[in-house]
């Protein structure tokens, strides 16, 4: 990703040198891919003058007034974000996810479609929670960890690990985040 910036509107993708003055003047970037790619795209975009990330919340997704939502966050359709939650910068919450009270989601984390995070969970920086996974109350998921789709997480997940199953178990340790991109 080094040296690349992707700006999209419909199917329009450009390199930094191809940005129009109007695109540069916008000053806002919206990036929706894997955690490592989101980070790389934002860092590259800063080099060409983008100053902040657009936070987008679908109108069908209630977000509690007591929740804190960082810059560059994308909350897709039919999600619920409960009271006291903290979503770091560049978090991606996919459709129909449910985030329970006082959850803490680290910068660049990705929450898959239909995920259920119970109350007081902590999701580490750059972690990825796969589609339909369930994380039980007061569980911590480490930085750059990956929870496989459909998993049920009852216990803490170490950083840089892959877990899968019901109940989930560690299947790999020492991974470099989702698809080899750590934050």
Do you know the CATH topology of the largest domain?
UDP N-Acetylglucosamine Acyltransferase, domain 1
Give the % helix.
10-25%
Cα separation of the termini: 13 Å
Number of helices: 2
Give the low-confidence spans.
Answer: 1-11
DSSP E strands, number: 20
- Assess the beta-strand content as a share of residues: 25-35%
List the SSEs and their pairings:
Blueprint lengths: L20 H6 L1 E2 L5 H13 L4 E2 L2 E2 L10 E2 L4 E2 L4 E2 L4 E2 L4 E2 L4 E2 L4 E2 L4 E2 L4 E2 L4 E2 L4 E2 L4 E2 L4 E2 L4 E2 L4 E2 L7 E5 L2 E6 L10
Parallel strand pairs: 1-2, 3-5, 4-7, 5-8, 6-9, 7-10, 8-11, 9-12, 10-13, 11-14, 12-15, 13-16, 14-17, 15-18, 17-19
Antiparallel strand pairs: 19-20
Description:
With 183 residues, the chain is an alpha/beta fold. The chain has two domains: 16-53, no CATH class; 56-176, Hexapeptide repeat proteins (UDP N-Acetylglucosamine Acyltransferase, domain 1). The chain contains two helices and 20 strands. It has helices at residues 21-26, 35-47, and strands at residues 28-29, 52-53, 56-57, 68-69, 74-75, 80-81, 86-87, 92-93, 98-99, 104-105, 110-111, 116-117, 122-123, 128-129, 134-135, 140-141, 146-147, 152-153, 161-165, 168-173. The protein has an eight-stranded mixed beta sheet, with no helix packed on it. It has a five-stranded parallel beta sheet with strand order 4-7-10-13-16, with no helix packed on it. The protein has a five-stranded parallel beta sheet with strand order 6-9-12-15-18, with no helix packed on it. The model is unreliable at 1-11 (pLDDT under 50).
């Amino acid at each position: 990703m080094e040296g690349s910036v992707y700006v999209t509107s419909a199917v329009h993708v450009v390199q930094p040198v191809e940005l129009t003055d109007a695109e540069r003047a916008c000053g806002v970037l919206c990036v929706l891919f894997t955690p490592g790619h989101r980070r790389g795209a934002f860092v590259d975009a800063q080099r060409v003058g983008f100053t902040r990330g657009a936070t987008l919340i679908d109108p069908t997704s209630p977000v509690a007034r007591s929740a804190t939502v960082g810059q560059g966050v994308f909350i897709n359709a039919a999600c619920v974000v409960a009271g006291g939650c903290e979503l770091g910068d560049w978090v991606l919450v996919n459709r129909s996810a449910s985030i329970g009270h006082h959850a803490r989601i680290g910068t660049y984390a990705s929450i898959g479609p239909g995920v259920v995070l119970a109350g007081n969970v902590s999701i580490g920086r750059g972690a990825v929670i796969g589609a339909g996974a369930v994380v039980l109350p007061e569980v911590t998921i480490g930085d750059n960890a990956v929870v496989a789709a459909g998993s049920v997480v009852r216990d803490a997940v170490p950083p840089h690990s892959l877990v899968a199953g019901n109940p989930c178990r560690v299947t790999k340790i020492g991974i470099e985040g989702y698809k080899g991109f750590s934050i």
